[in-house]
Amino acid sequence: MNWYGAASNPWVIGIGASLIAAVIVGLVRRITRGPKPVKAASVEQVQRSTVQQNASPLMTQNFQPTININVPVAGPSKDSSEASGSGSAERNEPTNINFKFLLHMAVVGDRWYQGNTRGGGSQIEGFELDLSGIYPGLGCEYMVRLASLGDSEWTSDGNFAGTRGQSRGLEGLAVRLTGPASHLYSVWYSGKCATRAHVGLGYVELAPASDGQFLGTRGLFSPLTELEVHIVRRTCSDVTTPRAPSFLFVFGVPLGENDSPVWVMMLKHYGPDQAYNCDTEFIDEDRKNIEHQWLVAHPGSSFLPPGGVAGESQKRIHVAEAGPSGAGDFRWEPLDPNTQHYSVNIICRDGMFVEKWEVTRVDGALRSKLVIERGPEWIKRHPTSEPGVFRYVDPEFVSTALAVKTPAKKRKPVNPG
Alpha helices, DSSP H only, in 255-284? Predict the structure, then answer.
């Protein structure tokens, strides 16, 4: 089968010099299943070769990522202390990460304690833990339960959670690790709480909690009085690599000849699993910018004129399920095939993602930049984590400005090849 005349298509030859090199040298390493391994060739060999395939490599590859954790695998040196919690010393081995945590207590005020030790002695009213700069790729978030006020929102490390000067007991808390190295470690915490007066004044040792579990009580007015926090390194059997998401993204090629005014936009599959319930919003940023310029020039108009000002600027597609073969394609006419700017909002079962894709013609060859990141809500919840999912930039790609007006030149007829 001849994919839209791609075998004789200069677009494929032009983008092949860079994209095939990336696929052979880089993307093949990302594929965890699929075709048998391909022997890598040098960039010079790829650039001198002529494309013999019927399609662009990005049209035929199933993208399956490799998660790269940029932290020392061996981790910091270990000490001989034991983590609290039943069975924790068997599954995990504590590290000597030199962190401290703060407890604000009635009468006493603020007091810092060394990690992996117990602190307290009177009613705890506030808590703070800061891992920033302590160990590469490792951070934390925590929430607290305050008497009469209830549960707080999760806050990132370095922020105080609780109250000062209100005599309001902290009834419980939860802590979880964040960042690229968080899957290598586990956080454990335990402590004591004061019992209510009608059952006799005293202190109760709480069962240890870990990794986001709640420690304490709710609604019993039994504040924490002692607390200890441990960060332990998981054993090899406990460490699990974060699973890559699966979703659909958009990538296109000219229909027929290299300078065709019509492009084939394909819904490509990314990830190790099926992509489910995908809503894809494809946006032509050049046309959107022209629409914005028109609204600015016509302040009395709240809407665009019938038919728009630069043609169709976006397209929405819903796909219930898609596998490695993708989910079909659609036709699109760029305002200027030599400079194109697109964004794609992707919502599926594995989350929300944002794709940015640009195309520029450089010395007759089409060059691309394609970046896919997690959505804004994920970034807000994981401020210390890397949002990038996939990134490819042609070494010869040159960024261009968005279009500000509709090109006046007449389009050439389409030759489907």
Answer: none
Q: Strand, coil or helix: what is 229?
A: strand
Residues whose CB falls within 8 Å of the CB of residue 393, separated by 6 or more in sequence, listed in order: 369, 370, 371
pTM: 0.48
Query: Can you read off the two tokens belonging to residue 44?
Result: 């010079």
Quick one: tokens of 362?
């450089």
Q: How far apart are CA 273 and CA 275, in angstroms?
A: 6
179 Cβ contact list (under 8 Å, min separation 6): 137, 138, 139, 384, 385
pLDDT in tens, 130-143: 887 778 888 899 99
> Tell me: the pLDDT tens digits for 41-83?
333 333 333 333 333 444 444 444 332 322 333 333 333 333 3
Greatest Cα-to-Cα distance within the chain, rounded to the nearest angstrom: 89
Residue with tokens 């596998």: 323
Task: Please give the structure tokens belonging to residue 395.
Answer: 């070494």
- Tell whether the torsion through CA atoms of 250, 253, 259 and 260 is positive or negative: negative
